[in-house]
Design goal:
The protein has 359 residues and is α/β, with parallel strands linked by helices. Helix content is 32%, strand content 17%. The strands form 3 sheets. It has an 8-stranded mixed beta sheet with strand order 1-13-9-12-6-3-4-5. Strands 7-14-10-11 form a 4-stranded mixed beta sheet. A two-stranded antiparallel ribbon has the order 2-8. Strand 10 and strand 11 form a beta hairpin. The N terminus is likely disordered. GO terms for molecular function: beta-1,4-mannosylglycoprotein 4-beta-N-acetylglucosaminyltransferase activity. InterPro entries: Glyco_trans_17. This is Beta-1,4-mannosyl-glycoprotein 4-beta-N-acetylglucosaminyltransferase.
Length: 359
């Protein structure tokens, strides 16, 4: 039997075996992608949106008195207590969006907690980007509370959500050092930015149902490409020691309509896009090196197509068809975060600013 496998007698088989193995591996990988694609296309058949909401109509405009604003919502002015409002975020590399966030919320937030790790959720080492750029945020020093987490590479058989969960536990510890019972805690990602006017309303009105999720306008790559109103994970809670837990999931059915902006993959440089794609919890969506090239990334930024080349995530075929060609370009910059319009350094986030620098 051994002689049957010798290279001398069966040289064609010897040459063919590596080719066969390579093709087999390719088809296994390809079949995985095909299964994923079929899953996205068939999602309306097998998956239902789990989140059910009681939508709260939202009333705000420039110059509207706080008393009238509370009245329109069916709430009343709070004249008894003045709890703090604390913004708590896990920071990775989003320097530009964090500055936009800080400047939008400055007038209403009392303390900003920034938690940063020496690794990404996938366990990839990273510098302490915020600390290295602290001078940029010197203007906000009086309100900033910065904390570091030193993490190790992912343990065997653990997913990126292992590190993400550890960061949220650490955030709970840092919130506890600052918050008192009854304080307002904003829980959202850096790129999920509530309107300052919305938070001011929540801060001064009595009768607001908490926990309160915030419906945000979804954008991709910049504020030039609005997607939908499906962002709901940002929320505000009243702090209760030993009860309040920092998380990113649904905690109530209360959803305040049109309460801010969620700008996903809104980076200044191609390098930042590559880092995000290869380091966050869904890094497995990168199907090949071609998705990490400058030409591919620059093209999708200017066309609104999916950066991973995947089908839309939709829960009905009506939405699937509507999102099939990617995001639709908008010429409007009305109602965006104030800093984006105030400062030329954020022009890459405006309509017409899609060209990105490499580094």
């Amino acid at each position: 039997m051994r002689r049957w496998f010798t290279c001398r007698r069966h040289k064609p088989l010897y040459i063919a075996l590596p080719i066969i193995c390579t093709l087999a591996i390719y088809h296994i990988i390809a079949s995985t992608y095909i299964i994923t694609d079929i899953g996205y296309l068939a999602r309306p058949l097998w998956d239902n949106v789990q989140e059910q909401w009681d939508i709260i109509q939202h009333y705000t405009t420039e110059g509207l008195s706080l008393e009238r604003t509370c009245q329109l919502h069916g709430w009343s002015i709070n004249t008894e207590t003045k709890p703090k409002m604390i913004d708590a975020v896990i920071f990775s590399v989003e320097l530009d969006l964090y500055e936009v966030r800080l400047r939008e919320l400055w007038s209403v937030v009392d303390k900003f907690i920034i938690l940063e790790s020496n690794t990404t959720f996938t366990g990839k080492p990273k510098p302490f980007v915020f600390a290295d750029n602290a001078e940029r945020f010197a203007f906000a020093k009086e309100k900033l509370i910065y904390a570091r987490v030193h993490q190790q590479p992912l343990p065997p058989n653990e997913s990126p959500f292992y590190n993400e969960a550890a960061m949220r536990v650490s955030m709970n510890e840092n919130i506890e050092k600052v918050a008192s019972d009854g304080d307002f805690i904003i829980m959202s990602d850096v790129d999920e930015i509530p309107r300052a006017s919305t938070l001011r309303t929540l801060k001064v009105c009595s009768g607001v149902p908490f926990p309160l999720h915030l419906q945000l306008r979804n954008y991709i790559y910049s504020y030039e490409f609005p997607l939908d109103l499906d962002s709901w994970r940002a929320r505000v809670e009243r702090y209760s020691k030993g009860v309040t837990a920092y998380s990113h999931g649904q905690q109530s059915k209360n959803l305040l309509a049109d309460a801010g902006w969620h700008c996903s993959f809104c980076f200044r440089t191609i390098k930042e896009f590559v880092f995000k794609m290869t380091s966050y919890s869904h890094a497995d969506r990168v199907r090949g090196d071609q998705f990490l090239t400058k030409d591919h990334i620059q093209n999708v930024i200017c066309t609104g197509q999916d950066i991973y080349g995947m089908y839309p995530e939709a829960y009905s075929y009506k939405d699937l068809i509507a999102k099939w060609d990617g995001a639709t370009k908008s010429d409007s910059a009305v109602g965006l975060p104030k800093a984006v319009l105030e400062d030329d350094k954020f022009s890459f986030l405006l309509p017409g600013g899609c060209q990105r620098q490499l580094d």
